[in-house]
């Protein structure tokens, strides 16, 4: 594997999930695989889970890991082709990415969408420039449109918690938030569930339709109560509007998941990628209750990252 930016980079989804399960049971078995190999993790945005779990994954495989907060510690980056750099930017991505590529064998990059220009975000301009100029295998640590390491951890978590080996009903349920939030986690989750052995229903208020390319295998409804009926898993997430790009269209009153809303589900397990705003996106009673899987998801991030890094190390 030389690129891990979406589900389309995964040749066999079932095998990758099995690999993650195997690594969870045997985290240090491949400690010599990454010897003398350097993993560079580049962040243009904040992170707790992705930063720590991906570092841990690299270390479990014996890699040297270096982390850079490029937005705060690097020179101000220019990304425009042909720019006359007489303003605030100091270094072009062409040199910056190429230099980092020289120091690293595998590079991970986090760069959120700006949520201003939909074409710019959905063309994944920054991620694609990194792929082009580092010339090294690239792992997305959440890009403008997707969060594939999160989705792999989510799929593993669902597999571990499926009641009685049945084909589960999984509901992606929009939640309120006070700020415009990327569509990445929702896009990616829908895209991955679309390829997994689950029935996916997506529910959100009017105006929050995700791009068609991610939701082709899903049933979509604006009726949350109907969507939740019989659910085995509820994946809670806020996202800003895709159609009215980057906008918050409603305060989402009544959309927050509560214990009352779990009645009528199949004692549904509740998921969220974290960070979560308590009592805005998700109620205390759900997060502190028995049905929450949020910490299991976060734990599985390590083994998802480790499975991907192992495949990349094997292909170096
Ligand atoms: C980010 C998002 O939803 O894309 C990162 C989640 C992993 N969350 C926030 O910006 C709060
Ligand atoms: N879920 C997730 O990616 O969290 P961080 O933003 O803290 O990395």
Automatic annotation (TrEMBL):
Gene3D superfamilies reported for this sequence: Aspartate/ornithine carbamoyltransferase (3.40.50.1370)
Residue intervals of the Aspartate/ornithine carbamoyltransferase carbamoyl-P binding domain: 8-160
Catalytic activities: N(2)-succinyl-L-ornithine + carbamoyl phosphate = N(2)-succinyl-L-citrulline + phosphate + H(+)
Keyword Amino-acid biosynthesis assigned: yes
Pfam families (alphabetical): OTCace, OTCace_N
Function: Catalyzes the transfer of the carbamoyl group from carbamoyl phosphate to the delta-amino group of N(2)-succinyl-L-ornithine to produce N(2)-succinyl-L-citrulline. Is essential for arginine biosynthesis.
Name the UniProt record assigns to this protein: N-succinylornithine carbamoyltransferase
Gene name per UniProt: argF'
